[in-house]
Write a structure and sequence with these properties.
With 115 residues, the chain is mainly alpha-helical. Helix content is 70%, strand content 4%. It has 4 helices and 2 strands; from the N terminus they run H-H-E-E-H-H. Strand 1 and strand 2 form a beta hairpin. Helix 1 runs antiparallel to helix 2 and helix 2 packs parallel to helix 4. The two termini are 25 Å apart.
């Protein structure tokens, strides 16, 4: 996170923001692991830890989607309507593909760490 904050102040703003994002994600991942691993599931069977990595990820995605749709609907008739920018170059397509790949890897590693 500290490296990301330093990079944001330079010409490498995008790299800095990615460092901050992944640093915060890692911290939240460790926190979720600590919370879910210590939860008592069954005291009779001496079971601890909630094995719900994929369920938690699915719920987070559904909640995010459920929050996004009303915001887009509310902004649709205003001048702040969301209109995606068309990808006009190979470089732009590569950036979107790279971001999608890192996002998918992030979700996969989160699930791996939580399981």
């Amino acid at each position: 996170i500290t490296v990301g904050l330093a990079l944001v102040q330079t010409s490498m703003r995008t790299a800095g923001l990615l460092c901050i994002y992944f640093g915060v994600q890692t911290g939240l991942n460790i926190y979720m692991k600590a919370v879910l691993s210590g939860a008592v599931v069954s005291s009779e069977r001496h079971m601890k830890g909630i094995p719900g990595a994929f369920l938690i990820t699915a719920i987070q995605q559904l909640v995010s989607f459920a929050m996004l749709i009303p915001v887009l609907a509310i902004l649709w008739p205003t001048r702040w309507r969301y209109t995606p920018k068309p990808l006009t170059s190979i470089r732009a397509c590569a950036w979107v593909l790279g971001l999608s790949t890192t996002f998918a890897l992030n979700i996969g590693l989160n699930n791996l760490c939580l399981s």
